[in-house]
Amino acid sequence: MKLVPQEDALGCAIASVAARLSLPYSSARRLFVADGVNVSGFSRREVISALRLAGFTGVLTRFGRASTSSRLARIPIGAIVCLRRNRADRVLHYVVRQAKCRWLDSLDRGAEKKAKWRASTGGQVRTTWPRGWVPLSFIDVTRN
Question: Quick one: CA dihedral 115, 7, 139, 105, positive or negative?
C-alpha cells in the first residue's frame, strides 16, 4: 500500500480505496463517480460499493462505546478507517491502517486543523493517531 493524495476537496474515501487497492486516484475515482461529476464526500456504504466494483469485499465494523485506544487496537492492518476529526465535524474522513503504528492519510500536513476540506499535494504517513480524532468504524477489505 502506498500513500495516495486526494485530488478532490472531499476525496479522502477515493484516496483511501486507491491506497488500499494500489490503484491510481483516477481509477479509484471511477469506482465512485462518472467522469465530470463533482465529488461531494462519500458514505461508508458507498466505499463498500466501490470496493465491490473492484472485485473486493468490504466488511463494516462499527465501534460501540469504547475508548479511542481500544478502538484503535481492534483495527486490522489494511482496513479503511472512518473517523471524525473532532466532535463538531459534520464530514467523515477516511484513512488506511498501513502497519501497527502507520496510518495513510490523504490530507496534507496541517490540513486536519483547517475548517475547509481541500485537495492535497502529497498527503502524509502518520505514525501517531491525532489528538481529538475519533475512529467511528472500519472497513476490513478482502479480495473476492
Answer: negative
pTM over 0.85: yes
Of residues 107, 92, 97, the one with CA closest to residue 5: 107
Q: How far apart are CA 93 and CA 13, in angstroms?
A: 7
Q: Could you give the CA distance from residue 16 to residue 21 in angstroms, rounded to a whole number?
A: 9
- Proportion of the chain above pLDDT 90, given as a percent: 60
CATH of domain 12-143: 3.90.70
The answer to whether the CB of 79 falls within 8 A of the CB of 126 is no
**Distance (Å, whole) CA 49 – CA 63:** 21
**Alpha-helix runs per DSSP H in the chain:** 12-21, 25-32, 44-53, 68-74
